[in-house]
Amino acid sequence: MPRFICRQCGARFPESATPPEACPICRDERQYVRWGGQDWLTPDELGAAHAIDCTEDHGVLGLRIKPAFAIGQRMLLVEADEGNLLWDCIGLVTPEAVAAIKARGPLIGMAISHPHYYTALADWAQALEIPVHLHADDAQWVTEPHPAIKFWNGEALKLGRSLTLLRCGGHFAGATVLHHAKGEGALYCGDVLQVAPDRRYVSVLYSYPNMIPVNAATIRRIAAILDPYPFSRVYGAFEGRVMDGDAKAGVARSFERYLAAIA
Ligand SMILES: [Zn+2]
Ligand SMILES: [Zn+2]
Predict the structure, then answer these.
(1) Distance 122 CA to ligand 2 centre (A)
(2) Tell me: the pLDDT tens digits for 186-196?
(3) 90 alpha carbon to ligand 1 midpoint, in Å?
């Protein structure tokens, strides 16, 4: 039996004779159903028409599907002393990409910021034999369950000496960022905080495609969560979206601007 992938958002579904009735991720107000109507493809069809581009960006290996597919996010390989962590996920697995990741050293797992990037986590977990850490508050959005998924609860989870997951909320109840305490520190945000095109600011929306903001209390809560953690870079979900240098001040500036805009 085939497995189906939502062509609009990249969500994956278990084997079934016919496609699911709808994609819950796209039906949610944080995404949108394809203008021409719900459309599906299989992993084989996706693999036949796409490859994975592996590019170093500000010292971190980024992997993304080319030509661009669905939301277009990248998966980043965060290289830590205690072992490497895959941050976020993409909808396609290739032997070349698996080899490129393995060549960088042993992995301790994968963590994903929020449900829009769950995509092919099951296939990646299987190919690399790693656990996948998801926040339990977003468990309802898992479209393809897998035994490698480890749900975590609460506000923070240490994955090693230098790697900490922080639940920020906002975009999703369990929306998570990753702090890496190496050098001046780095924050990996997916689009829980979205790095703006000018790369001097971030923003936080409940829905990016439908432009629904979060409220002031959410911004203040995220600021308080990040406050104890030093970082000079913020790595966003998309190619080149990195706030480089004194990013902690950049995030503070961004939150001030945001609060002034919605006051
Ligand atoms: Zn979808
Ligand atoms: Zn998202």
Answers:
(1) 19
(2) 999 999 999 99
(3) 14
